[in-house]
Specification:
two-stranded antiparallel sheet, 7 strands, mainly alpha, 373 residues
Length: 373
């Protein structure tokens, strides 16, 4: 049961969010920024005073199922209980059994630092009434057991929609735009539906599974927040579970259509091409083909063709370091170009998003300046 709970905790990426100090795993206190201010993750170790050591099984279940603390107050949905509610009891208690084996750490996280009126926690009852639907994942009897297992993980414990589904002005997921991409910490989590340019239409089940297990495939590399998800979660999961997730994701229908793209200004494309030929061709080649699984190819790249250019801009500004996993131990890196003027960054990003048959909205100097800040 403990081994099962450990595997489930890895699938939920619990350690990443609940670890501020690597020497104190699961002790909480990690800052999570939201559009409404910051919250700090809870201590999940079995410490009896500052962790969950005194919790009953029922209190743990209510936290997972309903986002309810032992004192009856409600958690904020940065703790993804709107997804964890889909877990069956046995899996919840397996996770609890695993957490009970951890070394207890005394650590009291800081209180939330949210703007008024959201710092008034009782308002969460209204939020839950409007946006939260508790209940288990409902299998589709017309689908395979593998598809249903993948759905249980994607929709529940792995809480993929928490990053990849856009939010409304109150921070609730927009159900009619499921998996159509969203901003996360200055990055754009791309579409996971079957959209042709910015989604997974061109990826096979094997491509998706390889990406989740190794952090790279013939189409793309994981970077930003997704790199940490791969390192701490999906690369640790069983191949069977990851493949089930891939089967489910590949089966998602295309949501709302991608925006029509106007051709970028010729002068922007010309300057972007000049910058690309001067600084990028050594790794990515003149035709953008790169070296798959070392330097990601650019033509047809779904992440590049997202409606929002934030991730491409961040990679140009910050550079990139390919994560290494047991299945992909070789490294690759890209230097940062943060010294370039905002307009040059926008131009080269616009060029790679619209060369070689790609099509995506032009990036602007204002967008670069905002992300640079």
């Amino acid at each position: 049961m403990v081994a099962k709970g450990k595997a489930l905790a890895e699938a939920g990426n619990c350690e990443s969010c609940h670890t501020a100090d690597p020497k104190k795993p699961f002790a909480g206190g990690k800052r999570v920024d939201t559009p409404f201010g910051a919250i700090y993750s809870a201590n999940l170790t079995p410490d009896r005073d500052t962790g969950i050591g005194r919790w009953s099984d029922e209190q743990f279940r209510r936290a997972m199922r309903y986002g309810e603390a032992p004192d009856g107050s409600l958690y904020y949905p940065a703790f993804p209980y709107p997804h964890f509610t889909k877990l069956v009891r046995e899996d919840m208690f397996a996770i609890r059994a695993y957490l009970g084996t951890l070394a207890p750490v005394s650590n009291t996280p800081p209180p939330p630092a949210l703007r008024w009126p959201l710092n008034y926690r009782p308002l969460m009852r209204l939020w839950n009434y409007a946006f939260f639907k508790p209940g288990l994942f409902e299998p589709d009897q017309n689908k395979s057991a593998e598809w249903n297992r993948g759905g249980y993980l994607v929709e529940g414990l792995a809480h993929c929609g928490a990053c990849h589904t856009p939010k409304n002005f109150l921070g609730a997921e927009r159900s009619k735009r499921r998996f159509t991409g969203s901003m996360v910490g200055g990055w754009f989590a791309p579409r996971l539906d079957a959209a042709a340019r910015g989604g997974l239409k061109s990826w096979s089940v094997d491509d998706i599974a390889e990406y989740l297990l190794s952090g790279r495939n013939a189409h793309s590399h994981a970077d930003g927040p997704m790199a940490q998800v791969v390192l701490n979660s999906t690369s640790q999961m069983s191949e069977a579970d990851v493949r089930a997730m891939a089967v489910y994701l590949k089966g998602l229908a295309a949501g709302p259509p991608e925006p029509a793209v106007a051709a970028p200004a010729p002068e922007q494309m010309a300057n972007g091409e000049k910058l690309y030929k001067r600084s990028c061709v050594a790794c990515h080649e003149l035709d953008g083909s790169g070296a798959p699984r070392i330097y990601p190819p650019l033509p047809g790249n779904a992440n590049l063709q997202s409606a929002n250019p934030a991730s491409a801009i961040r990679i140009v500004l910050d550079g990139a370091e390919t994560i290494t996993t047991p299945r992909a131990p070789n490294t690759g890196s890209m230097p940062p170009y943060s010294k370039w003027p905002d307009q040059d960054v926008a131009d080269v990003v616009t060029y790679i998003r619209n060369a070689w048959g790609n099509a995506a909205p032009a990036a602007t100097a204002e967008e670069v300046a905002k992300l640079r800040r």
